[in-house]
Design a protein that fits this description.
The chain is mainly alpha-helical and 108 residues long. The protein contains 3 helices and no strands. Helix 1 runs parallel beside helix 3 and helix 2 packs antiparallel against helix 3. The relative contact order is 0.10. This is chorismate mutase.
Length: 108
């Protein structure tokens, strides 16, 4: 009987953790959506003013800053850097598309 209660308690704790994980995942998606909304606006601004889609200096500053934030938060800085690099590549891809579309609009 005690074993069944322990298992039921463990399942209840697990359900609580999973509910928190689900909430965090939802928040991450909303935060990424907001981040990409802002970076899209940056891409439009860059395209309108003939600025390059990528800014390696800014990207390196962000990587350095986020690696330190990860360390401070007890998150693996290598993981944080890989994640940021993935996001940066996607942002640059969007900026290149915006620039190409802006060039096509000016040519038309």
């Amino acid at each position: 009987m005690n074993e069944e209660k322990d298992m039921a308690d463990a399942r209840a704790i697990l359900a609580g953790y999973r509910a928190s994980i689900d909430n965090i995942d939802a928040a991450l998606i909303h935060m990424l959506a907001e981040r990409f909304r802002c970076t899209k606006a940056v891409g439009v601004l860059k395209a309108e003013h003939g600025l390059p889609p990528a800014d390696p200096s800014r990207e390196q500053q962000q990587i350095t800053r986020l690696r330190q934030l990860a360390k401070d938060a007890n998150l693996d800085p290598d993981f944080a850097e890989k994640f940021l690099n993935f996001v940066i590549r996607e942002v640059i891809r969007h900026h290149e598309q915006i620039a190409a579309n802006n060039g096509a609009a000016k040519a038309g």
